[in-house]
Amino acid sequence: MKNLKIYLFALLTFVFAIQSCDEDVDLIAQQLADNPLPGEVTGTPGSLDLSNYVSIGNSIAAGFQDGALYTDAQNQSFATFLGRQFQVTGVGGGSFNVPSINSANGFSGTNPAGGFFGRFELSLSLLRPLPTAGELPEAFDGDKSSLNNFAVPGMKMTDISNVGLANNGLYARFATSPGTSTVLGDALAVDPTFFTFELGANDVLGYATSGGADEGDITDAATFQANLQTSLGALVGSGAQGVVMNVPLILTAPFFRAVPYNAVPLDAATANALNGGFAGFNQALAGMVQATLITQADMDQRMVQYAAGPNPILIVDDALEDLGPKFDLLGLPATLRAGLEPFRQSRPAVATDLALLTAAGEIGRDLTGSGTVLSGISVPIADNFILTQAEQVNVITARATYNAIISGVIAAINAGQGSTVLAEYDINVQMADIAGLTPALATQLALSDAAIAAADGVLGIVVEGVNLAPDFSPNGVFSTDGIHPNPRGHGIVANAIIQVMNDTFGSTIPLMSVLPLRSVLTTD
Description:
Strand content: 5-15%
Structural class: alpha/beta
Distance between the termini: 73 Å
Low-confidence stretches: 1-21
Mean pLDDT: 93
Number of domains: 3
CATH superfamily of the largest domain: SGNH hydrolase
CATH architecture of the largest domain: 3-Layer(aba) Sandwich
CATH topology of the largest domain: Rossmann fold
Number of strands: 16
Number of helices: 17
Oligomer: single chain
CATH class of the largest domain: Alpha Beta
Shape: elongated
Helix content: 25-40%
């Protein structure tokens, strides 16, 4: 009887377990019915042949980030992201091969203490980018005939057919024949079926990042147009279709926004000491007004007066009259006249001036070791660290001119082909949103209707329900160099290009998820 009880108890336990399992199975089945597992991600190419996608561009398309070209950044460029999305089932894309730099940190400059600097990382304790240890890039030892990314950091529109681009080591390392081959020729040689074209920013960027030092750094419109027509004409003539990116609003990047114009914090004692040092200069200006050598308005913008708290950077403005000859007319002793020499075209910065990111390490630098000749404080900071409003107008005008040319050339080629073979990606739709432009300012900048509509006046861009910042913070979309996107920024660009393709060519290429991508690399 005892054994029978044990048997019956065991049987009841077994039946209860079976019943529980059945209930669990039913519950799981109901959950699956209510929340089905996602099926295989698929897409279609529409009227495009994406079997051999080629990227032509400059540093952004190459994946240059954090001041360097390094392996992880190459693998997280918008071009690489596009290549991956084109390989989704049904889209028909082939492999996408990059000329790997084979370097964890890349090269950003020579270290005065020995060796080389690599990519920058954001120091969370110092709140500024710090360089890693880097290495010089080596020649690409892979199969050059199977490459897909022909983007070269530093390349201008005028360089795409220039054999002299071999002087740029980042092209020479993968050029089929350095000194003879060209980027356009190498790209055409792999028989592309589809391409993205991202050139034009460098035709004005060098001028902007050098503080407007040389207007000759801006490519003239006729040369820009001729090279664009030749390049796109050759690519389309080969049978390829493509998406052409226009020139972004580069002045909204953190390189031009991270350092405020009034980045000189002073206590009252230091401000008073500096004011004592500038008393003679200010008196000289007042004397020149009395002698009708300059106007009161000119004097007002040049006078230096410090106070406790944040103060404007003392800058050089080459648009100002050079007062050197008029200083000579004051009849000052030689030592006093020599003391005025640095201030021939100086003035305190105003809110419309843009201090470059490079100015962060220059402001307050002791130029002589005496502790009294301080860059941007007791003497003007060099012109290449500041972009004045007049210089900004040059940048804005060049961008607007280039973008009008890009739109016109695309329209002309499509008309000549009798169908839409080229689509334009207006990156300023995203840039206007990220920068928090107002519709009025976007209109003033002659942006497209779509960019004006995206200008909501709120800093940052909402992606998958999260607002990403217009900076190189851990929540930002830029890399630590303040110019190039980080991987999340590249994901935003890739998705926007895919949307243009889907809208223009009838494809159904799925968008990628941006938030899982990393932002900036950080260090303590």
